[in-house]
Every structure is written in structure tokens, then in C-alpha cells.
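Run RIP metalloprotease RseP through structure prediction, thanks.
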Amino acid sequence: MSYLLGVVLFALAILISVSLHEAGHLLTAKAFGMKVTKYFVGFGPTIWSFKRGETEYGLKGIPLGGFCKIVGMTPQDDDVEPGDESRVMWRYPVWKRTIVMAAGSITHFALALVTIWILAVSAGLPNPDFPTTDAQARQEPAVIQLSQCVVPENAARACTSADAASPAAQAQLKNGDRITAVNGTTVNSYGDLLTTLRALKPGDTAQIAYVRDGQPGTTSTVLAQTQRPPLDNPNGTVAPVAALGVGLVPSTPTRVTYGPVGAFGATADFTGQLAVGTVQALQRLPQKVPALWTALTGGERDIDTPISVVGASRLGGEAVENNAWLVFFMLFVSLNFFIGVFNLLPLLPVDGGHIAVAWFERARSWIYSKIGRADPGRVDYLKLMPFTYAVILIGGAFTLLTIAADVVNPITLFSR
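Sure, done. The structure for RIP metalloprotease RseP is below.
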């Protein structure tokens, strides 16, 4: 039941975000005096509506987005009533049109920023000093987290009955123990522990010195076998190595909370990282198509592949089911930021395409005036329709592929 509740809550959060996106267009267009005739949440048949002034507001039957109808977005629009010619959108200065078209993405960014700030002062944001690379992790003290088995391949997964039992568990080591020596070799860091273990062989007996709650202790165990690449070459050829069956407990906390003022700086820093990650994710989209197809046809789902609204809602359900509300809200932040950036891409029919056309017209008029030629006027959107349809076709196919993969072979963050 909690899983279903999470799915519904996340889907509702997305719907509210998209509705606010359209509200951004609505409010800025009205503020500049443009005529807005419709604002609806959803698509399809109208369930309920009312009219206030010149705008009809309402709710439609398919809750998969929303729309805002601004009269005369292009010179080719033919729904301009007599007397409204001066209020059509395309006649307004380019800076005003830019604000109106960018208002949707700005709304998504605002939702993300406010949520990040709230998390910064409540649950906390990821600690920038937390070790994120192997090199950083190896500098940490060898404080261990116990595993119940030794996974034979270099992958993170749950233990199975076929996996070897953890030698550390058999030796009665516990979570939080700090290993100080192995077979008499001093261990000052997690890197030292890995190096010392690699010098041994599977089946060797390891004499382990450790500190628990400030008290020293010793134990011994027989090392198991696993497959790992060389320590100095993570992409190298894997080979059999000795394994203790432990992981690292970093000495730094994973999250940091901030005061109301300090949270503004932390929000800015986290947003910068999010922006870089979003741009990199967009750049990787084309190369992820084969991975999505592999997942759809029965292969393993790459956790780095894109997810649809369906996949995001399923992850939201998992987060609520496991009481991981921070994950829920981080998903909300990431999705809003991604939608905001995506809508600013200079491609029709998204908002960024309209902004790009507006500034192209402005630049072209300026150049023509400088060379003494007549203003060529507005861009004919009808001539751009083939490119627009191509974007819609490619985007639609990618969306369907992503949704299908999320239904058939979804990404999961928790064991269910």
C-alpha cells in the first residue's frame, strides 16, 4: 500500500510541476498584456471548466500534463479575433516573448531550488567532502562495514546462497571495527587494507588486529576468493584475489545540514553540480538508446539509462515504501531540473525553439539593417514544420522506448 501511495504522490507532484510550468506562461503573458484564452490541466475531454475574463480555466480527463493557449504565438496563427491584432504574442518585443517562453522552465528551476533549500535546512544535502572516488576512499581509516558474503564479481548485488560466506563475519568482526593490522602488517587506511589483502592468496589465514569501541582485539579467518581488477587499474583485467568480505564506513557523514542563511550557498553549490550532471545526461542520451533496447529485450537494465515519468513514479513509490523521503524529494528535484533544461533546448516545438526563432529574427533584422537591406520580417513557421515533426517523431519514439523499458525492466533502488 505504501508503494502505491508513493507512486501516486510522485505522479501528482509531477502533474503539479507541469501545471505550474503552464501557469508561468499564463501569468507572464497576462502581465505583458498578451491574450490568453485557455489554461487547462490535463488533455482530452473536459471534465470541468469555468471562464474568468477572457480565459477559460479547467481540468481535462487525461492527467498527463497541461497547456496554456496564448493567441498569436506565431504570425501563421489564424485564431486572432478582430480587435486583438495588437495583443498577439508575436508582435511583442523579443525580450518579452523570451520571458514568457522561459517562464515555464524558470518555474521548474524555482521548484527545484526551493526544495533543495528546504532539504538543506532539514534532511541535509550530500556532503561535498564525502569520498566519491576510489582514491579518496583509500585515504580513509579502515573502519569496516560487514558483508554477509563475498560476491565473486565486481558488482553490487544482494547475496545469494551460491556466494561464499564473509570471512570477516566468520571471524566475528562487527560493523564499525577499525582494522589496524593484517598478519603483522600495519594498516593505517582502507587503501593499506586492500593492498595488504592483495598480497595474500585465497585460502590463506589472516591474523587481524582491530579496535572496537576503543579497545584492541585480534581474530583470525581464512580468506575467500573473489574477482577484481588491479588496484591501480580499475578497467584492467579481473583476476582471482583474496577477499575479507568488508566494505568501507567513511569517516565523513554522507549528508550535511545547514542554517537558513548557509543553506543559500549550499543550494547554489548543489545546483551547480546538478546543472553539470543534467547537461552531461543530455549529452549521453543518444548513446543510451541501445542500452534501453537491451533492457527492453531481456538484458540487464543499466542504472544510468534515462527514465520516464512512469519510471520516476515507480522509484518514488519505492522511496516511500522504504521510508526514504530524501530519495523521493531528490528525484523530484532532479526531474524538475531536467525538464527545465530540456525545455530550453533550441528545438521546436519546445519553448527553447520558440526563443531561438525569436532571437534569430532579431539578429537577422539587425544584420539586414546594417547592410542596408529591407527587414526580411518574421520566420515562416510553416517552413519549419518538417524539422518540428522530425523532433516530435524522434522524441516520441524515445519516450515510448523509455516508458516500455520502465514497465518491462524498471530501474530499482531498493530490494523489494
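The chain has a mean pLDDT of 90.
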